[in-house]
Design goal:
It is a single chain. The chain has a four-stranded antiparallel beta sheet with strand order 2-3-8-4. It has a two-stranded parallel ribbon with strand order 1-5. The chain is α+β, with helices and mostly antiparallel strands and 245 residues long. The chain has nine helices and eight strands. The protein has a domain at 11-22 and 75-225: Gyrase A, domain 2. Helix content is 43%, strand content 19%. It binds flavin-adenine dinucleotide. Flavin-adenine dinucleotide is lined by residues 91-94, 194, 198-199, 209-211.
């Protein structure tokens, strides 16, 4: 194998990022859609007249799982996270659109995931009934050193193949799922709630889920953006056990 001097130097991250790049999303979008069925065109005027009634309507829609009024809005996020997060993320098929950076058309940059100090490292218990606990400093050291060493070697192999004239789409096979990728993900409040119900752990959840921490980190950041855009819808989601309508 060639020297690992070739190409850019690998860097290591323990965070994910979620940027809200575009949105058209507000609580009134839900109210408008719900009231159009009963009040017709006049419904737009009714929205701000009685805030308590509007809150009550949102709560009713959430509780009784009248989901479609929550679809008339849109949020586009730019996400950077390791590939293993995107593998899980893209299982969410309904109400989501994705575009991810290409490993065929561009040279992949050596940015890799290494768990931070606060990431629980050790799994205890049996499948279906386990918990994660903090690792020792020695375990953190082992994880960091093993991952960084493995990442450096795989990226050096990638660079070696590119230098030898091998196509990017072939050479990338050597890169691990800890490599960072980026994507645009567009959703609406209903599909986001379904995602959050499965990919976050929350004390108010009626149906608990046990997601991998790294996708939960993405979910938490998305939820914070959404909460600011649609505070009443978010409150109703929490008040009704975080079950998507
Ligand atoms: C904690 C956790 C662990 C997981 N572990 C694994 C695992 O080990 N292996 C694995 O492969 N996956 C695993 N998954 C992924 C999981 O099985 C789902 O693929 C993922 O959560 C997306 O959920 P969804 O299908 O409800 O979402 P979406 O694809 O967004 O679908 C939304 C809803 O639409 C309906 N729907 C969508 N497609 C269909 C369809 N074809 N037929 C009927 N109804 C449909 C369903 O009601 C569905 O809930 C895991 C998920 C979680 C949260």
């Amino acid at each position: 194998m060639k020297s690992d001097k070739a190409g850019p130097e690998p860097s290591f991250r323990s965070d994910v990022t979620v940027e809200l790049v575009k949105h058209s999303a507000s609580d009134t979008d839900v109210l408008w859609a719900a009231r159009v069925s009963t009040a017709g065109e006049q419904s737009l005027d009714e929205l701000t007249k009685d805030p308590e009634r509007s809150k009550g309507l949102l709560n009713y829609l959430m509780r009784d799982r009248h989901g479609s009024p929550f679809e008339h809005n849109s949020m586009t996020f730019f996400v950077t996270a390791p590939i293993f997060v995107f593998r899980e993320f893209m299982r969410h098929r309904v109400g989501w659109s994705y575009n991810e950076e290409s490993g065929r058309y561009r040279e992949l940059q050596p940015v890799f995931y290494v768990p931070g100090e606060d990431r629980k490292l050790v799994q205890r218990g049996r499948p279906g009934k386990y918990e994660f606990v903090h690792g020792t400093p020695e375990q953190h050291k082992t994880v960091t050193e093993a991952m960084e060493e493995s990442y450096r070697r795989s990226y050096a192999a990638y660079q070696e193949m590119l230098e030898a004239g091998v196509a990017r789409e072939v050479a990338r096979a050597t890169l691990p799922v800890g490599l960072f990728s980026s994507m645009y993900a567009t959703c609406n409040a209903r599909s986001l709630m379904h995602f959050l119900g499965l990919r976050t752990q929350h004390e108010l959840a009626k149906v608990p889920s046990f997601p991998q921490r790294e996708i939960e980190m993405v979910g938490e950041r998305m939820e914070e953006h959404w909460r600011l855009l649609m505070p009443l819808t978010h409150a109703a989601f929490n008040a009704n056990g975080r079950v998507a309508p």
